[in-house]
Amino acid sequence: MALHASNAGYWAALLSVLAMIAIVAVRYLLASGGFALATRSARPGLYRGLNQQIRREIGWSLASAAIYGLPAGIVAWGWQAHGWTRIYTDIGAFPLWWLPVSLLVYLFVHDTWFYWTHRAMHEPRLFRIAHAVHHASRPPTAWAAMAFHPVEAVTGAIVVPALVFLVPIHIGVLGCVLAIMTIMGVTNHMGWEMFPRFIVRSGLGGALITASHHQLHHDWYRCNYGLYFRFWDRVCGTDRGLAAEGWDKT
Predict the structure, then answer these.
(1) E-assigned strands of the chain?
(2) Which residues cross the membrane (predicted)?
(3) Which of 53, 77, 105, 225 lies at a CB distance of 3.0 to 4.6 Å from 118, suitable for a disulfide?
């Protein structure tokens, strides 16, 4: 009886992992594909001659999807089968003010982890081993958001799954975290600025990362390391501002 239960648990966990891999892969294809189509309309010819690079970006990204899906699937199974995490579904379980606060906590912790691991990836040995894969996209396209070497993909895949064991979060807010992560990852790489100038050059734009900010990282490498916020770049003196106006129209 115990053996049967153990086998059932194994297959349930495996199915959860496979489902999450599929979800992450489809999410990537839909988001990157959607913004690639938007690029074709808004900036015709911007990706001209980059077909081989794009195929490489898609290949690395789908491999990364498998790596991201593994811990996510185990966490999803553990949450549903054993209640392991601090994910909750009852909106009244915590005060309503915790909903936006938990969103900011997750984004800030993720951004902090990303900033420091990203800087580490630019150390010569780690760059050669892993991060060079991502920077092979010159210029980056909407398909490059998850184009990581497996070593780098592992560092990105563990953050949110680890946080759900530590910080309470409503399932809907967790969905918002994942949506923001996906959209900002894609739009920051697509090679043009989708936000109007008055937003990018405003106080809000000075706090958040958009394509105008991240493009300089791909141009100059040792600057603008953040994912969502410019906080750590400013504190650590690695913020080099925004790309020159018109960079996305050449």
Answers:
(1) 87-88, 169-170
(2) 12-37, 58-77, 97-116, 169-187
(3) 225
